Every structure is written in structure tokens, then in C-alpha cells.
Amino acid sequence: MRIRKLFKFENAHIVRNCSSDRCKYSIHGHSYQVELILEAHRLDHGQMVYDFGLLKSSIKDIIDSFDHAICFWDKDDTDYIDACKKFSQRWISLPVSPSAEQFSRVVFFWVREILKQTQMQNGETDVKVYSVIAHETATGYAQCFEEDVLNVQMGELKLEDFAFSEQVKNEWSDPKMYDKLINGEKFVNPTVKLQVK
Q1: Which of 23, 132, 161, 162 fits a 20 to 30 Å CA distance from 150?
Q2: Which is it for strands 2-13 and 69-73: parallel, antiparallel or unpaired?
Q3: Phi and psi, residue 182, nearest 5°
Q4: Which residues are designated catalytic?
Q5: Average pLDDT of each block of 10 consecutive residues along the chain (197 residues)?
Q6: pTM of whole model > 0.90?
């Protein structure tokens, strides 16, 4: 069984080394729509794959980090990176290029790591990310599966290789969320009192 949750954000970037001169030489933005698709082979006590309400906490916060932020590849020119940090309160440093393909991989990776470290409280057992689709425009999207996240030819993803501006972190429900993720601390879902047994 699979469920889909749609997230939206506005984001700016430069995609270095791409074919389009407009994209590789100029800061530009997109209205992104990201589809997070979760799957499980059994349902929780509420007869759900995963309660949509639970996606409004850490997972929503981490994806919302992209909103009204500028993303840059940590290997880009240092003058450009310094300017991004100087002139934008909201920025994210990525270990990969900020393309739609990499956004789909990054979101998959982050959500997978959060779910791995989440203490489930309502009978959820094997909830995992099935796929992430990052719509960069109305006509184009990139879709990622687990084998894409694991494929080092597409760029290695490690938690400690991402950086978020203080403004981004301060707008999370828990400003220490990413530190907790890196340190392997548990995210604990709310306890549920069963009404029907």
C-alpha cells in the first residue's frame, strides 16, 4: 500500500555544468512541488500506512527548509557561496548540485533517515519511502527511488555534508532537529490510546 503527500516550496539556485546557459550562469527560481510516496505492507492501528498528520512535524520542517531559500553546491566558487550566505538569511549547502534530480534524492534521503530514527507508537512496522518526485516546472520533474539514493555515481549523500543557515534552523519546530538526526537521537511519535480493539 502506498500513500502520497504533496509539499510545495519556492527555491532559487544555479545549476552548474548543465547545458542551458540561463541555468548555469544565472540565479533563478522555481515553484517546486514535491511528492513524497510512502509504502508499507501492513497498516497501523488507525488502518493507515502512516498518519498524514505525522508528516507535519520533522518531515515537513526538513522539506520546508527549501522554501524561499537559495541552495548551492558546496563545491561551487567560494565567492559565490559567501555571497549567498551574506545576502540571504535562508540558504542550504548541498554536497550535490541543486538540480531537480538531486532535490528528489536529497528529500528521499532526509525522510528515509528521519523514519529510520523514529520511534513508532501506533503499530507502524515497515513504513519506508517508496519514491520522491520533484516537479521543477509544470512540465518537468525528476523521480527518485532508493537505488538512486544509494548510487554513489550520482553523488554520495551523508548527513554531515549538509548545512543549513541559522534562519532556516530557527524556523523548525525544533532548531536542533538536524543535530539530533546526525547524532542518531530518536524522533518519538505521539502515543495513541486505542479506541477500538
Answers
A1: 23
A2: parallel
A3: -60, -40
A4: 23, 68, 136
A5: 98 97 96 98 96 96 98 98 98 98 98 98 96 97 98 98 98 97 96 93
A6: yes
